[in-house]
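User: I'm curious whether this sequence folds into something compact or stays loose and floppy. Could you predict its structure so I can see for myself?
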Amino acid sequence: MGKNLFQKVWDIHKVADLPGGRTQLFIGLHLIHEVTSPQAFAMIKELGLKVAYPNRTFATCDHIIPTDNITRPFADSMAEEMMQALEKNTKENGITFFGPESGYQGVVHIVGPELGLTQPGITVACGDSHTATHGAFGAIAFGIGTSQVRDVLATQTMALNDLKVRRVEVNGKLKPGVYAKDIILYLIRHLGVNGGIGYAYEFAGSTIENLSMEGRMTVCNMAIEGGARVGYVNPDEKTFEYLKGKKYAPKGENWDKMLSYWESIKSDKDAEYDDVVVFNAEDIEPMVTWGINPEQGVGISEKLPIDDNPSFKEAYEYMKLKPGAPIKGTKIDVVFIGSCTNGRIEDLREAAKYLKGKKVASHVKALAVPGSTTVKAKAEAEGLDKIFIEAGFEWRNPGCSMCLAMNPDKLIGDQICASTSNRNFKGRQGSSSGRTILMSPAMAAAAAVTGEISDAREVFELN
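Assistant: Here's the prediction. I'll summarize afterward.
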């Protein structure tokens, strides 16, 4: 019986079997940012340790950085303090830092792939939940906490429990108006937010294979929202084409050598899995969430579920929605297009395509936030910024922005936000009573224009 990609990459990076059953795993790429790294640097300094492999750690700033005015010092003194700590720690330890002046700053899970740091067959760790994004390249990527950031800084390894592997197969052609975001919201609805606990998800099937690299990143990004520690897609020609020529991608003879390695770590045709689930792409329609976790979602044409489950009752009370009512037509206050889930150039192009010549509803505040400096530059070169601005959007600088609101971009009171981000938890977008409805960039564009939750297929006549 053959091996799947997860098993191969795990075995290649295993340093030792630890007492208690855990594995000491070598981490090929460590990405850090300003929020979860200061304490980790302080801990290794206290222990008299140095960063073991500074050439394998790369930093950027994303969570706290303002997206309107980035003049230093930042207006938020705590944000300024975190930024200064990151600047100091990276300088002292010889770590490459992609700050705003570097031309490469942005959301950590967008910067890594676009610079070619994220490559097939490596292990990746970052102190952020959505590190699974990098699995789109056939990497095994772990979101970790501050104590593990410390461990990786000090040893370039960390202790992990092995995972089971579930092959999540989606086959068939997507209908018009259905995107990668709809796929992952659909999968989480059916597999549950806890369904992936103890698993790595291998996303496969013709639908996944036909996604762009950016679409694959969107799917892998939210693997953690389904409880899976890791999500990945086997690398293919599309992966290699995306990487070729990137700043940190292998060059010359080394490219051929790595290409051979990348081919070798693909799941074998007779690979064994702990579980296999299969879905039909034609069953997926544009998805929106209605509740307080990503599992609580429906197709846009559906009515909200009627269920006595206490978690449903809690969600309905918080969201101020009624069981049995349609989600379509729910008035919204804010639209946010951005985040590590949907802040890439492909996302901005798709939203701009539908917003061109249209206006944001008068009662709606709309933000378009590119995921990185590179994405922003590309978008502006293509004139996308003008389309967003003319439609009534605010065109911002790169950052996490309203995804988690650790910066000035926040909801006010119980505003409802049509958001392309990844979490709809209570208070996620900066207000303790703020409400988040997750959706694709096209659906967010439709909501911006109509001022309510709408079916993008109807608003933009997609057939």
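Summary: The mean pLDDT is 98. The longest helix spans residues 77-93.
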